[in-house]
Specification:
Distance between the termini: 71 Å
Largest sheet: 9 strands, mixed
Number of strands: 15
Structural class: alpha/beta
Length: about 400
């Protein structure tokens, strides 16, 4: 009896010692951030994570009594196999509760089946090909789709007496989505497509493509390229080959005048018309708070762009879903909390569509102007409550 009592006491003591460890493990929510932190797309990861850190700077690192922990993984670029391997490690070894980030479409598509298998909520903070949310019921997107932001550009162009357009797009999912959406909406409004060219995603050489467009003599080019270095290179070629002097206008999605690189692109961008969902120049209390928090969390060397805004809004969605689910990280409960979620974003009001799990938001028409001596995308028209037109 005495021995049995001592054994029970020992077991009780062990249980009490283990309890705080268990409670600590249960009080942490782990976010596995899969994005590009090196290579030509390194700014994607930096901006997304910068936005996430800005939200945590402003709102703290706990929600529903749980501490938020972010684990970074670098895909190095459009590397689907790498992204899949990293996501698998995050799920099985790191025991993450969410998969987040995903700057590029190929990486997001590669990870989608893992999210389904593990029932892990997957928050897309940039990748913009339309079909992504259809690849897993555990995916929600807070960024955009290319058709969503392209259709308003086509409608605006047609209303502003542009009749003949040549499309120049990057040769992967988002570019092909953008081209198809532009052509459909532009032709429906009476416009004519006079040619198209698809630019390789890796190591593009713009000069021959730009010359081909110039020889076709369209009234305008509709352009989609991934944000960052490629936009700088294209604008240089557009200027050097005299397309503006030839009367060929340039209209584009806002990737080309990414806030993060706009100053580096310089004077050739002045007057460029784009359609997009976020501008650092957006005038609202929410955006001013975001810009302040971003600078405090990341320094003032980099201006936040649309990916930073999506990183910020992705964290807002995660916090709201956890609060609504009373801290539960169960995939089905989190996804139920995300559906129909409304957020007062730095870009304006957004909602997660309860049927498609894609973002519904205002798309703005903007012009590059100088504001206090610096280049900004200044909004002058808007298309509220835009969904992906194909869904």
């Amino acid at each position: 009896m005495h021995l049995g009592y001592r054994m029970r006491l020992a077991l009780l003591g062990a249980a009490l010692l283990a309890a705080p460890v268990l409670a600590t493990a249960q009080s942490v929510v782990k976010l596995g951030l899969v994005s590009e932190f090196s290579g030509p797309f390194a700014d994607y990861g930096a901006q997304i994570y910068g936005g996430m850190k800005a939200y945590m700077k402003e709102h703290g690192d706990t929600v529903a009594g749980k501490k938020i922990e972010v684990i970074q993984k670098d895909t190095t670029g459009p590397q689907p196999d790498v992204a899949k391997r990293l996501a698998q490690e995050l799920i099985t070894r790191d025991k993450v509760d969410f998969l987040v980030g995903f700057g590029l479409t190929p990486n997001a598509l590669a990870v989608a089946p893992l999210a389904t298998e593990a029932k892990k909520p997957m928050i897309i903070m940039n990748a913009a090909t339309s079909v992504i949310t259809t690849k897993s019921p555990y995916i929600a997107r807070v960024s955009m789709t290319l058709p969503q932001i392209t259709q308003p550009m086509a409608q605006w162009a047609a209303k502003n007496r542009i009749k003949k357009v040549y499309t120049v797009v990057s040769d992967y999912g988002p570019g092909l989505d953008a081209e198809a959406a532009f052509a459909k909406a532009f032709q429906a409004a009476g416009g004519e497509m006079v040619g198209s060219v698809h630019i390789p995603l890796r190591n593009p050489e713009f000069a021959p493509f730009i010359q081909r467009v110039k020889d076709a003599k369209p009234e305008a080019i509709f352009l989609f390229l991934p944000a960052g270095e490629q936009g700088i290179a294209f604008m240089k070629g557009y200027k050097e080959r005299g397309l503006a002097e030839a009367g060929i206008k340039l209209i584009a999605t806002g990737d080309i005048t990414d806030d993060g690189v706009l100053e580096a692109m310089g004077e050739p961008t002045l007057g460029l018309i784009t359609s997009f969902h976020y501008s650092a120049a957006h005038d609202s209390p929410e955006n001013r708070a975001f810009l302040k928090a971003y600078a405090e969390a990341n320094g003032k060397e980099r201006r936040p762009n649309f990916m930073a805004c999506a990183g910020y809004d992705g964290m807002a969605a995660i916090y709201a879903a956890l609060a609504k689910a009373n801290g539960s990280t169960d995939g089905d409960k989190v996804m139920a909390a995300l559906k129909g979620l409304k957020i007062d974003s730095p870009r304006g009001p957004i909602m997660i569509d309860p049927e498609t799990r894609d973002v519904v938001q205002t798309v703005y028409i903007r012009k590059v102007e100088k504001v206090n001596g610096e280049l900004y995308n200044v909004e002058f028209d808007k298309f509220p409550d835009q969904k992906d037109p194909g869904k």
